[in-house]
Amino acid sequence: MKLADGSPQSSLDGSCAGSRPGKADVHIHSIASDGTASAAEILDFAENHTDLDLIAIADHERIEAAIECQRLARERGSRIQVVVAEEVTTRSGHLLGVFLQARLKRSQRLETTVAEIHEQGGLAIVPHPFSAFTLGMRKHAILRVHLSKDPLVYWDALEGYNPSTAGRYGRAATARIAAELGLPLVGNSDAHTVDTIGDGYTLFPGAVAEDYRQAVLAGTTDGSCVTWGAVREVLIYGQQVRKQARDVSRWGRRNLLRDDSPRDLGVPTHQLELQREAERRYLLEREARRLAEGSTAGTTDRETEPGLARRLLNVRRGARARSMAAAHRHEVEEPPA
């Protein structure tokens, strides 16, 4: 088994006497974004070479590989549970959404995306805060969400343990602001190669996905991570560069030479079609619920300004759901990230 170096200062020792705490890594990248392994390869490695109980693929601006990994785990009866996550780019930096039902839209206002994550029943986590290299979120943005009066706009946790250069850069500052705001810290590998999966992790009471969610909400998580040396970082980056070069070449053939071969997301084509259909159904059902809630609110005496603002927000988000569904039907491929 591959175990992360270092002894975590665990707050779980007393509560987990007699049994080891659960172990999660919910920030892993696949070939669908800037990682180098498919969903199947990630699941295989996690099953056979780590002692993780819970994982999530969190690709940049995509969830296809995450859903495929979850499907494979269920189909196999894997010992590892898999949830759907995404690392989405907001106007204030990168944001990690975990336990998602649908893809998040990039380049939105931070508060809008945080609310969207919670509306989906997910957790909003700040990945590698303060990083100068990978759009790490700054203190003013973190505080803005923390001080928001919107019931859907709040932080669930900060990623305090991340073995990459991006994670190391702001580790001390992340610990300070987490203590200041009373937010839990979690750990993740931010893996872009299979051999780094589990190099950062979260410890939590229990062993299954719902236990992890409840531990984050209750603030009973702990974490740890290794520290990658310069040689390790260079080797990882080299694999990413080679993969990126292949992506650019394939993108050029498809979009400039009109080659009909689809982009390789590491997901069978028929599964992608099923995913898109399931997401469309989810978005339409969610919009129907919003409209029903808005209609009900309109027949009550809640005609205050905050109530009106909430209904206007629902209408705006309903329009966004329709636009997302339409975008999936006519999606234009962007160049590789």
Verbal overview:
- With 337 residues, the protein is of the alpha/beta class.
- It has two domains: 22-230, Metal-dependent hydrolases (TIM Barrel, Alpha-Beta Barrel); 269-329.
- It is 44% helix and 14% strand.
- It is built from ten helices and nine strands.
- The protein has helices spanning 39-49, 64-76, 110-119, 139-146, 165-169, 171-181, 209-218, 230-255, 269-298, 305-329, and strands at 22-28, 54-57, 81-90, 93-98, 123-126, 157-161, 185-187, 200-204, 222-225.
- The chain has a nine-stranded mixed beta sheet, with helices on both faces.
- The longest helix is centred in the C-terminal third of the chain and has 30 residues, at 269-298.
- It is globular.
Number-wise, the strands total 9
Question: Could you say what the CATH architecture of the largest domain is?
Answer: Alpha-Beta Barrel
CATH homology group of the largest domain = Metal-dependent hydrolases
Structural class: alpha/beta
Strand order of the largest sheet: 7-6-5-4-3-2-1-8-9
User: Which overall shape is indicated by the principal axes computed on the Cα atoms?
Assistant: globular
Overall number of domains: 2
CATH class identity of the largest domain: Alpha Beta
Named CATH topology of the largest domain: TIM Barrel
Beta-strand percent range: 5-15%
User: Treating each run of at least 4 consecutive H or I residues as one helix, how many helices?
Assistant: 10
Mean pLDDT: 86
Proportion of residues in helical segments: 40-55%
Query: What is the H/E order?
Result: EHEHEEHEHEHHEEHEHHH
Ranges where pLDDT stays below 50 over 5 or more residues in a row are 1-11, 13-17, 299-312, 328-332
The end-to-end distance, rounded to whole angstroms, is 33 Å
The major β-sheet equals: 9 strands, mixed
Rg over CA atoms, rounded to whole Å, is: 20 Å
